[in-house]
Each structure stands twice: as structure tokens, then as C-alpha cells.
Design goal:
Layout lengths: L1 H5 L1 H25 L20 H9 L8 H5 L4 H21 L10 H14 L1 H10 L8 H4 L2
Length: 148
Amino acid sequence: MKQNLRQPQFWLRLCAIFLGLAAGVGAYTFVYAKGGSYLTNDPAACANCHIMGEHYNGWLKSSHRSAATCNDCHTPPGFVSKYFTKAENGFRHSWGFTTGRFPDPLQIKPHNRKITEQACRKCHQQIVFAIDAIHKPGMELSCVRCHR
């Protein structure tokens, strides 16, 4: 057995088995979690995860329902940026849900808060301009501080 441990073929086979198992588990998880739905702009995909149900139902009742999808507010513009952010958040949400280590209710991360803030300001430029014109210098304004 000791002689087998020194042969490169043994390690290559072991790595191939490990990578095959990892790919299999990853593929199973992707299918089980309806991973393909997250590649769309369909807001119902966000409700695949039970913890997002309340947020999805809130969106359904809001004025944003007819104007914006989840991706419009929660991902940056641009193909690469959008899907990188979706992958990063999806991995973090999946990891948190799998390990049971996520805050309930969910807390928006600073990077995602910035993305959402920029989306608010882009769509509501006239309102933001009017508010910015009267606010006190040095006072930081944040849409998402009040509008959750």
C-alpha cells in the first residue's frame, strides 16, 4: 500500500474521484435548488427560497411590481456585474441556509446596499435631485435607510 501512495496515478485517480463527487453534488444541488431559474429576470425565482417569500409578497403588493424586477434593484447594470453579483449572493445565501448561519430577518450587505441605493437614485432622479437640493451639507442621504 505504501508503494501505491507514492505513484502519481494513485493521486490522479483520487483527485478525479474527489472532483467527480464534488461536481455531482454541485450539479444535484443546482438542480434541486432550481438554479436555472436564477439565471432569469423572473421575480418568482427569488421566492424559491422560503426565507425570501415575505420579500417577494411585499414586492407583489408594491408599486414597484409594475416597474421593476428584483434584478433591477438588487443587481448592478451590465451582464458580467449582474451575474457575478447573483452568483456571489446565491452562494452566500445557499451557504447560510445550508449551515443555518444566516440572520433572520435577512440583513442587506454593504455592497448590496450600495447597489440598491444606486438603483433607487437612477430610477427616481427627479425626486433625489429635489431632496439633494435642500439637504444640509455633510448630511448623508440614503434611500434604503427609510425605504426597505
